[in-house]
Amino acid sequence: MLAAKLLIRHWRSGELKLLSLSLILAVTVLSAIAIFTNRLHATLLIQSNAVLGADTVISGSHPRAAHWQIEAAEAGIKTTESVQFSSVVYAGDAMQLASIKAVAEGYPLRGTFELSDQPFALQAGDIQAVQGIPARGEVWVDSRLFTALQLTLGAKLAVGDAELRVAHLVIREPDGLNPLSAFGARVVMNALDLPQTQVLQPGSEVNYRWLLAHDDPQKLGAFVQHLKPQLDPHQKIITVDNAQERLGNTLETANKFLLLTAVIAVLLAGVAIAIAAKQFADRHANSVALMKSLGASAARVRLLYGVQLLLLGSTASGIGLACGSLIQAAVVSALQMAYQQPFVGASLQPFVLSFMSGILCLIGFALPALWFLPQVPPLKILRQSLMLSRPQLWVQGLCAALAVLGLVVVFSGDWRLAGVVTLALLLVLALALLAAFGLLKLCQRWLANAGGVWRLALASLHKKSNHSAMQILVFAIAMMLLLTMSILRNSLIDEWKLQIPKNAPNHYLINIPATDAPVLQQQLAQGLGQNSVLMPNVRGRLVTINNVEPSEATRAKENALQRELNLTWSTTLPASNTLVKGQWWTIWQRSAADVAGVSVEEGVAKNLGLQLGDTLRFSIGGLTLTAEIASVRQLNWQSMQLNYFFIFEPGVLDAYSPTYMSSIHLEASNKAFLYQVLREHPSILLLEFERILNSIQVIMDQVAQGVQLVLYLTLLGGALVLWAAVMSSLDTRKQEAGLLRALGAGRRLIQGSVLIEFALMGFLAGLVAILGAECLIFGLQKWVFKIPVQPHLVYWLIAPACGGLGVALLGYFGCRPILTTPPIIVLREAA
Amino acid sequence: MSLVPMLDVHAITKIVPTQEGDLEILRPISLLINAGESVAITGASGSGKSTLLGILAGLDTPTAGQVYLHGHCLTALDEEGRAQVRAGNVGFIFQSFQLLPGLTALENVMLPLELHGNKQAKTLAMNFLTHVGLESRMQHYPPQLSGGEQQRVAIARAFASQPKILFADEPTGNLDSHTGNKIIDLLFALNREQGTTLVLITHEERLAARCERRIELAAGAIVTSEGI
Ligand SMILES: Nc1ncnc2c1ncn2[C@@H]1O[C@H](COP(=O)(O)OP(=O)(O)OP(=O)(O)O)[C@@H](O)[C@H]1O
Ligand SMILES: [Mg+2]
User: Fold this and answer.
1) Out of B50, B102, B116, whose CB is closest to A9?
2) A375 touches B: beta carbon within 8 Å
3) Which of A45, A80, A56, A51 is nearest to A239 (CA)?
4) How far apart are CA A268 and CA A270, in angstroms?
5) Is residue A755 part of a domain?
6) Residue of B nearest to A285 (CA)
7) Is residue A240 part of a domain?
8) Is there a contact between A297 and B107 if contact means CB atoms under 8 Å apart?
């Protein structure tokens, strides 16, 4: 195989070093990121699915169709189920309303129960994670029920007609209580004991949950899609995505950012590839002419080089893939150590994609520069001055843009992101090119009368005006992308920190009896030193709007119409709310003296087409309440505060025997205190959200680490580009320097002129870079990440300064060989 | 010796368009070169020598006229067809050597053989390199060799594929006269051994004198043609 032989020879001679290095870097970065995000994503999904107990839950008011189970089994999907309902349970003479969860074998599919033998256990040593469910005849109860009924381990608990033995206490459970629909304390029992209890009668309110899990999300997704049309209106699909939107958003942003960084790293490597390919093409124009003069046809040449390129591409991609997997493995193992959390393995997809993208990079970045090679006329070998018809710059730019577009689409499936990135890059490049030319011209005018070293440096810049502009452009692209990444990274991480306020509530107290409320508020104020707001709470349904029942279509569209709502009243506008329409109670003009006012959440108002002054009728425990819309509020869903769709005027709900709710921020050290307080108020239900919050925090940290790593790799890409750009000009520089030295120019002079030339280029590139970076960041923040935009003034100083210094040093060291070698050798090598 | 002439040229001209109008580089030229002959093309700089050589070797096309290389009508063929004729029939030696800088001396010599699919490329190439006295420099890259050594590699490369006709454009132009003489000796020695037809451009009297025939060009036309 001649192509392979030639490739090895070219490799040995060192002329493929830059090309293969750039390609390896591109694939390394891409694969490291692709594999890492793939694993991170899968891991996070498993972690958050542990909260749900499954990957997907089909929840409904009656059991699933029997044949679904068979279909699921055929599709290889793991299933189990739970049945949840409220019932009064008895221990001796004492009784309590409990929220019972009967679970089947295999529950939970994700996550575990955490059990203890002591109520309100805090110490890790007292808590045990347990795979499995209560044995037949046994129940697990939560701490509150345990204390309220004064149970002991082994005591009997009557659930309906069944007498079950209390085996353990549940400290944490997957698919835990929903703060907004929870009633009573938790009892977990074995589903096989359910018939014996006789509690479930036709008409009782029951929630059947069918839990599904599969290691391949695509298989599961396909199955769920297949089920979708068969679901009735009372059944819905619950996934982590809709269960934890906040986490989902963060993950998506993180994903986009990682992806963007990957693209930018690839772009940097791509620029290096393009430079290397051009250098390769320049060197090989003669080789091709020679081969053709020896009788090789254009087709032969194309095949020879095509195969070489393909071989080079696959080898470099393979090596890059290996490096990428090693890097991500190192990062993952460091993360596993730091967070004590196992990572899921990667699927095959990122490996295949990364490998393919190596080839794509070569096609997009290198091929255009090499395309003319087979067309080099054999006459070139006799007549060196023969002009070759090379592909236009814009053709190369277009190919590169298409490659980038392809890569983003392949890796994200996100056309929007791909479009924004590619368009913005093209625009910025065009601007940068103009700016580079303009600045160059300006400089020449200003420094026209300078002498000595400056004259030499400028002459050099001037002589190669096009070439210099291109070099400035390349420097600028590298710097611009690096600037964009580091600025964007900072603002994203800041933004994420803002998303979860430091003192966000992490515990919720529900079901506080009106009689306990004042005492509890005082206790909390004393013990925690914070003023907790107790929100009154009444559950009711919205039945008519302006005396008309909402249509079936509206009902399907708005979740708030499908279930009982938590209704509250408040004297003041809650802290995390802002008024967007209407007036708050003090200055609100009611239409009639006896009508009550209600304030509605913006989203619901929009969905239901509600206007100020509309009347709403609610059904609350068999009674009705009519109210007029006084205002529309916007909620901050990120605040973690208790949020309400409907807030009434003070006192309106008094007649409906409200209970109270509160959200509090609790440090770990105060946990024991809270448990102490709760023992005195046995009917209060505590929801601990800290675990979810913590896992969000861990995820953010993991992502931030990933971002950091990616940034380093990008830096490497940038350095490679700068190096490539300097190296690519070395051939001509060698000749010049040799000539100058032969003519008697001192080393100082040449050194000085090289330094000044590169410093000037670096300075101009820095200016162009920060200009481009600002544009790019503006677009990305506004349209992709949707976070506020502000200018980065410091960077306007830093970028040109660092650019000038950095490039000057790079140029100096890159060109050192031509300064230190004797002129005669320089000339011979260049010839 | 075959009856077909190695090169048969009928009234070729070369006119190139320039900004100041058409430029006539070659006026009608006809000539005949038999197999095994050695022919020197001489003339002042700019007289059209390289242009003529390019057309004779099928690297370039004339504006009018026909060129027959070993019976193949080059002017009736397209570039692919001419490439096929060149393959195995034609060899080159250039003033600036034209060795591929990324290949060692040995690999440079092997290249044409490998292009023609010769299985013995390596042994043949080594033989020829030894023949030109470079057995100890086979693994060296061109920049590591002196000009004379590079030209010897080029000669080994040209003869290794055993072409019927060899074109040389000022093979000694970049060499001092001592080295140049050695190169010329080598060239003619190999030429005799293999019976190759030799067409070389030179402005060195010594070199031209060693050829069987001399064609002198001036302003794109033949002024003297010895030995026809
Ligand atoms: N493509 C072209 N366009 C314009 N002029 C051309 C072209 N090719 C050749 N010439 C001109 O034709 C003339 C002959 O060129 P050629 O290279 O054949 O000369 P030469 O005899 O080889 O000269 P030298 O001894 O200097 O190598 C020169 O004046 C050259 O400038
Ligand atoms: Mg010439």
Assistant:
1) B102
2) no
3) A56
4) 5
5) yes
6) B100
7) no
8) no
Give me the pLDDT at residue A831, please. 45
Indicate whether residue B29 lines ligand 1 (CB < 6 A): no
**For A789-803, how does the pLDDT look when each residue is reduced to its tens digit (9 = 90+)?**
777 888 888 888 988
Please give the torsion angle defined by the CA atoms of residues A614, A620, A625 and A629, in that order, rounded to the nearest 10 degrees. Answer: -30
Q: What does the DSSP assignment read for A712-765? A: HHHHHHHHHHHHHHHHHTHHHHHHHHHHHHHTT--HHHHHHHHHHHHHHHHHHH
Superfamily for B5-227?
A: P-loop containing nucleotide triphosphate hydrolases (3.40.50.300)
Minimum CA–CA partner of B55 in chain A: A379
Q: Which two tokens stand for residue A700?
A: 């953010």
Minimal C-alpha gap between A719 and chain B (Å): 26
Asked if A223 and A266 sit in the same domain, the reply is: no
Cα–ligand 1 centroid distance for A600 (angstroms): 89
Q: How many residue pairs bridge chain A and chain B with CB atoms within 8 Å of each other?
A: 91
User: Which position has the token pair 């009982």?
Assistant: A564
Please state, in angstroms and rounded to a whole number, the distance separating the CA atoms of residues A262 and A232: 43
The ipTM of this complex is 0.89
Number of domains making up chain A? 4
pLDDT one-digit tens code per residue, A692-737: 666 666 666 666 666 677 777 777 777 777 777 777 777 677 767 7
Whether residue A237 lies inside any domain: the answer is: no
In a domain, A709, yes or no: yes
Cis bond leading into A108, ω under 30°? yes
Which domain-ending residue is among A643, A659, A688? A688
Quick one: A325 and A351 in the same domain? Answer: yes
Domain boundary among A391, A413, A435: A413
Same domain, A265 and A353: yes
**Ligand 1 atom nearest A382 alpha carbon:** 17
A279: chain B residues, CB-CB within 8 Å: none
Write down the pTM of the prediction.
0.69
Chain B contact for A1, CB < 8 A?
no
Residue A403: give the domain boundaries: 1-57+247-413
